[in-house]
Write a structure and sequence with these properties.
The chain is mostly helical. The protein is built from eight helices and no strands.
């Protein structure tokens, strides 16, 4: 499965969910998700200013373009160029900003590969989404550390309990 088919399925799945009122999330949860993913009105206005030339003429250096030998892969051997946060952001911004969706349709794959399109996009919006992406990264690290410390506490408690049980004198 390539990146473009993943986006197509995700966008179509989101649009199907939005048509069914029983499956819609409350409006407040949607706004919270948009805020967490950095999809603000300021970002939307910025993205609407993009043109075909914005992407075609973007000065992407060869070392920034990525190397197929250094790509990250998931356990299912699918190319994964975007972080989870970036994937969720991309799906949301495509559904909110139809102009970006149309640009992507015109550019990919005729003029740009999908991976290059998203690399350019995230460079163009970095000033708008950087703090949101970093916040999400910090939350993920904090949650991972909390899970690790909880496990460590249980392990220490179990070790202490086992040690006292083996040291306790037998009462036979």
């Amino acid at each position: 499965m390539n990146l473009s088919s993943w986006f197509h399925r995700s966008v179509s799945r989101n649009s199907k969910n939005n048509k069914n009122p029983e499956q819609q999330q409350p409006h407040q949860n949607q706004e919270e998700e948009e805020e967490l993913l950095g999809v603000t009105q300021q970002l939307i206005d910025h993205v609407k200013s993009f043109t075909l030339e914005t992407f075609k003429n973007f000065p992407l250096q060869d070392n920034e373009a990525g190397d197929s030998n250094t790509e990250t892969q998931t356990s299912s051997k699918v190319r994964k160029d975007l972080s989870d946060w970036q994937e969720r952001h991309a799906v949301l911004v495509l559904s909110k900003v139809k102009e970006l969706s149309q640009l992507r349709f015109k550019l990919c794959p005729r003029h740009l590969k999908e991976e290059k399109f998203w690399r350019i996009y995230f460079m163009l919006v970095k000033s708008h989404v950087y703090e949101y992406e970093q916040l999400a990264r910090l939350k993920r690290i904090t949650m991972t550390n909390a899970k690790t410390s909880d496990t460590s506490a249980y392990e220490v408690e179990m070790a202490e309990r086992n040690q006292t049980a083996s040291v306790a004198p037998s009462t036979q």
